[in-house]
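Let us practice reading a record.
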Amino acid sequence: MLRQAAGLAALLAGGRILALAAENPQILTCDKLTLARPEQAGVTYKGLVSNSDYRFDATIPKGLVGLGAADVAPFHGFAIFLGQSACIVFEIQLIVVLPDDSPASPPERRVPVRFGNRLGLGNSWVGTVHGRRYLNTYVDLELPRSGYKNAASVYLVTPVDERSATEPVFRSFLASFKFW
């Protein structure tokens, strides 16, 4: 019965995101989600990350590193690798809507999820890539500003068999955000 609830892909229960979706052919791995790689050069972030342009603070969990773009590139987020196959990707950007943009498609069914001091919307999918089952969890939020909006999102990509170790790190990182 729960597998038939493909539109309802995530629920919060006791602070834990529970994936209920049927397999999704669009499952992401860290290689597909981000160009960042632990061995590549770029800006690194540890501990408290503050950004006055996007007006937020977040804390990268102890012992982990956020990998951003090159020094000369503008800030749009970073990736945190939790091992060989698991990662958290944080992205933030200005929302630009042009006059000839197509109207947004109806949103998939998502659930409210706490994104630091704000309330975002989240969804999760489970699927198989190269014989291994992965959980993809996505939480996003719009940040209205004076005359414009920013969009922030955090992804968790993790093998299902590593979920008990990676999901608490994801929840901790997500809870650390303070938007002003």
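A brief commentary: Confidence is low (pLDDT under 50) at residues 1-23.
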